[in-house]
Amino acid sequence: MVIVEFVIVPLGEKSLSRYVAEVVKLLEGKGVKYQLTPMATIIEVPTVEDAFKIISEAHELMFKLGAERVSTTVRIDDRRDKQYHMEDKVKSVMEKVRGG
Asked: Using 50, 70 and 90 to split pLDDT, how confident is the model at 86?
């Protein structure tokens, strides 16, 4: 699995919640596993290509919603030596925090 964090910002907007809500609807409609955070959205998909396709759709969605300028930032974690998921990364850190 590939874990990808992305942030899409329609520039010039004071509130982004309506835009983020539409991205979440897009992800849910596609059955994409996601985690919404206060500053970004994280998705888990099989390939980098899948991630770019989804993020491209979300980026274009901003224009469909009326944005005139959009900035998108993407960060990719593509680990191929073993299978892992979003929860595994968090669990690994928390085990270390708790001395496990």
From this structure: very high
How many whole angstroms from its chain centre is CA 68?
22
High-pLDDT (> 90) share of the chain, %: 91
How would DSSP label each residue in 2-67?
EEEEEEEEETT-S--HHHHHHHHHHHHHHT-EEEE-SS-EEEEES-HHHHHHHHHHHHHHHHHTT-
State both tokens at 79. Answer: 């680990």
Both tokens of 10, joined, read 């329609």
Global confidence as pTM: 0.91
DSSP-assigned letter for residue 78: E
